[in-house]
Design brief:
The chain has 295 residues and is α/β, with parallel strands linked by helices. It folds into 2 domains: 164 residues, FAD/NAD(P)-binding domain (3-Layer(bba) Sandwich), CATH 3.50.50.60; 96 residues, FAD/NAD(P)-binding domain. The chain is built from 7 helices and 17 strands. Strands 1, 2, 3, 4, 5, 6 and 17 form a 7-stranded mixed sheet that branches. A 5-stranded parallel sheet has the order 7-14-8-9-10, with helices on one face. A 3-stranded antiparallel sheet has the order 11-12-13, with no helix packed on it. A hairpin with a 3-residue loop joins strand 11 and strand 12. Helix 1 packs parallel to helix 2.
């Protein structure tokens, strides 16, 4: 299915942008999980037009209902990658979706991995991007740290480079989708809790909490769900301090790719996210119309 606009993230920034694009008669798809920080907000009372405190979850649901009523499509799926060919391809566990323009509005989730020496070996055997660094581990013994579909799919990207791949869940129970059960069977899954990464100048082994060790040349961090930083690393999007760099129109350095909300490193408030979403939506309308006019 071909869309004019795909929006990754269904929080305030993403839904705000969708309200503009769908009203401009652009075919709009919003993809995201129910993982906005607002789900944990008990009461919101500092947002314009809300006379009484409102639960964050209700505010999110109201926004989605509004977008659906106007004609947007919303899918509850995990986005695990973005590619650009002649058009953008947004990849989820269940399928691929194509669009002329994409907005990243998935918040600023970061992998919360507390393992000794992880920062010491970043760039020295520990990587966050299989696309960027997988080449350097051809024929090597590698691992992927994670327990969800994101880790499984990152491991799959390494298969053309090496046949010695282990997924380490760090004590977490694997949460792979049933759709990917066949793929999961291709890898060794190690569920032991990890104590530390060890080595000399470069990573050499994993030390588990039970004292056992596992020799390793490299490991790729894919903990939890894919974040905006993961998208940025794979696509060459400019970032600064783990946030996506945008201009005054919410445009990234890649033509047709926009970002809005917390992932741009701004003041984390609903009003700011909604405003950036509106700016991004308006510019995306202009971009898509220009693309169609010149096609």
């Amino acid at each position: 299915m071909m869309y004019d606009v795909i929006i990754i993230g269904k929080g305030p920034a993403g839904i705000s942008a969708a309200l503009y694009t769908v009203r401009a008669n652009l075919k709009t798809l919003v993809i995201g999980l129910n993982d906005s920080a607002l789900h944990k907000a008990g009461e919101i009372e500092n947002y314009y037009g809300v006379p009484h405190p409102i639960p964050g979850k209700q505010l999110l649901e109201n926004g989605e209902k509004q977008a659906l009523r106007l004609g947007a499509e919303i899918l509850v799926e995990e986005v695990i990658g973005i590619e650009k060919e002649d058009v953008f391809i947004v990849k989820t566990v269940k399928g691929n979706y194509r669009a002329l323009s994409v907005l990243i509005a998935a918040g600023q989730k970061t992998a919360d991995v507390k393992i000794k020496n992880i920062s010491k070996f970043e760039g020295r055997g520990i990587s966050y991007c299989t696309t960027c660094d997988g080449f350097f581990f051809r024929g090597k013994k590698v691992g992927v740290l994670g327990y969800k579909d994101f880790a499984l799919l990152e491991a799959n990207e390494l298969i053309p480079l090496t046949n010695d791949i282990t997924i380490f869940t760090n004590g977490q129970t694997p949460e792979f989708s049933s759709d990917l059960s066949e793929l999961a069977g291709r890898f060794e899954i190690n569920v032991k809790p990890i104590s530390a990464f060890e080595g000399g100048d470069f990573l050499e082994k994993i030390v588990f909490e039970d004292g056992s060790e596992y020799p390793l040349d490299g490991i790729f961090i894919a903990y939890g769900s894919a974040s905006t930083v993961n998208f940025a690393l794979k696509m060459g999007i400019l970032t600064k301090d783990r946030a996506i760099v945008v201009n005054e129109n919410q445009e990234t350095n890649i033509e047709g790719l926009f970002a809005a909300g917390d992932c741009t490193g701004v003041f984390k408030q609903i009003s700011v996210a909604v405003g950036q979403g509106a700016v991004a939506g308006r510019r995306m309308i202009e971009y898509v119309r220009d693309k169609k006019r010149n096609a």
